[in-house]
UniProtKB/TrEMBL annotation:
Keywords: Amino-acid biosynthesis, Branched-chain amino acid biosynthesis, Cytoplasm, Leucine biosynthesis, Magnesium, Manganese, Metal-binding, NAD, Oxidoreductase. The lineage of its organism: Bacteria, Bacillati, Bacillota, Clostridia, Eubacteriales. This is 3-isopropylmalate dehydrogenase. Pfam families: Iso_dh (PF00180). Homodimer. The gene is leuB. The record marks 142, 191 as: Important for catalysis. Its EC number is 1.1.1.85.
Amino acid sequence: MNKQIALIRGDGIGPEIVAEAVKVLDRVAERFGHTFSYTEVLAGGCAIDATGHPLPQDSIEKCKMSDSVLLGAVGGPKWDQLDGSLRPEKALLGIRSALGLFSNIRPARLFAPLAHACPLRPDIVAGGLDLVIVRELIGGVYFGERDTVLKNGEKYAYDTMGYAEHEIERIGRVAFEMARKRRKKVTSVDKANVLDSSRLWREVMHRLREEYPDVEYSDMLVDNTAMQLVRNPGQFDVIVTENMFGDILSDEASMITGSIGMIPSSSLGEGTRGMYEPIHGSAPDIVGKDIANPVATILSAAMMLRYSFNLPEESDAVESAVSQVLEEGYRTADIMSEGCTLLSCSEMGERIAALV
Ligand SMILES: NC(=O)C1=CN([C@@H]2O[C@H](COP(=O)(O)OP(=O)(O)OC[C@H]3O[C@@H](n4cnc5c(N)ncnc54)[C@H](O)[C@@H]3O)[C@@H](O)[C@H]2O)C=CC1
Ligand SMILES: CC(C)CC(=O)C(=O)O
Ligand SMILES: [Mg+2]
């Protein structure tokens, strides 16, 4: 199989972790007889430095011409003072929107050997943890009308959260279909006690659940969900929620895996072209030290193999290699525990690639 992959290395630790995922993809290509070729795409702070814009039109075109996109992370303190539309993070929102990637899947799975790294109580962790957050990705407050205006002699800034029925329905379907392949349980998370957009969210979800009588369904308010994720994460199978709630809850859920460096993601729309990225950011505090955890990016590449290229065996091989490395006691600094062997970012990538 020949595939063209757009690589957005981005900023901060982005280039370090993407390099490790590429090592793993190259090993997959070698072992299974595929050809993966890469197109370098500029987006984020590095694109601002090179072109003055976080997402040049040429970058969008390159992504559209590729079979899929692998992204590290964008942003960092160097660009923090820039105005809203010129910020590196806008590149991320821009690509997601330009490619129509409404469905962001963020699996939070505790690998058994990392149970010790999980900050939750052992009795909560016992038996394993495995949930998926299905996050709506191109609507809600990150894409709503916004402005900063002068009001009563002072600055007033606003952002608006809004959803159309069809936007809620299509992400709801993704969640119900996913639940059918898992433990058949959907928790829809909203703030329907306050927000109109959440009340519509709930109305559409309730309509949809009639089509999935085999799936257990419940509503949960987002503040309660934040608490329940720590108190009893084992109660969740598939969580479906709007853009910002999903963003926040998935960072929280990463703690059940031991580290934010462990959660991958896929972002898909109607077709097979997707964008794959770790859920974390550019981690400016550890950039250039070769200590970042590349596993989330490597597992994102595994999701690309499964969902965009329909290569389940190859994807399984990558996930098994990650499991094996962890079982053998190799760790990056963020998941290090006593008796284990500390690896750098690049050593971890090489070790996983060697086991594919
Ligand atoms: N998808 C993206 O490109 C995202 C970009 N950002 C941007 O990244 C920059 C930094 O944001 P923060 O709030 O600091 O969030 P962050 O996720 O970059 O870092 C939070 C903490 O987690 C650690 N961490 C993150 N990834 C890690 C990894 N792979 N291995 C080990 N430790 C890791 C960092 O060292 C830091 O202590 C900001 O400019 C932000 O806007 C934030 C989130 C997502
Ligand atoms: C620009 C932000 C929405 C990125 C982020 O935090 C995320 O997608 O998780
Ligand atoms: Mg986030």
